[in-house]
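Margin note: ligand = zinc ion.
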Amino acid sequence: MSEVVVEPNGTVEPVEVSCPGCRVPLAPPSLRCPSCGEDLTALVRLRYSGRMDYNAALEALRAGEASEARVLLRRALAAEPGLAPARSLLAALG
Ligand SMILES: [Zn+2]
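Resulting structure:
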């Protein structure tokens, strides 16, 4: 069984989410628009889902669950096709 080396700082940074109404960027950790107070939790979850799956894949790899990591990485790439670290990690896993 081949070992996959995971970068110690392989986790990805969160993406910036803006309020769809007023285009004001969210100020983490708040999940409400600083301008209109709209609850943007669902939007944040949608935008972050690829990154959350990617980070979960890193956790799975550390736990030795390579097949679970592959599933999570494919899901991450379906949510965010431009997520380069997920793509290269999936390629490394084969
Ligand atoms: Zn707003």
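Residues 19, 21-22, 24, 33, 35-36, 38 surround zinc ion (CB under 6 Å).
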